[in-house]
Amino acid sequence: MNETTNETRPLRVALAGLGTVGGGVIRLIDANRALIARRAGRPIEIVAVSARDRAKDRGVDIARFGWVDDTTRLAETPADVVVELVGGADGPALALARATLGAGKGFVTANKAMIAHHGLELAQMAEAAGAPLKFEAAVAGGVPVIKGLREGASANAIERVYGVLNGTCNFILSKMEAEGRDFADVLAEAQALGYAEADPSFDIDGVDAAHKLSILASLAFGTAPAFGAVETGGIRALLAADIAEAAALGYRVRLIALAEAGGDGLFQRVHPHLVPLDHPLAHVTGPTNAVVAEGNFVGRLLFQGAGAGDGPTASAVVADLIDIARGEFGPPYAMPAAALGMLPAADSGKRVGRAYLRFMVADRLGVLAEIAAAMRDAGVSIESLIQRGRSGDGSVLVAIVTHEAPESAVSAALAQLAGSPSLVGAPLLMHML
Question: Which of 112, 134, 147, 212 is catalytic?
Answer without folding.
Answer: 212
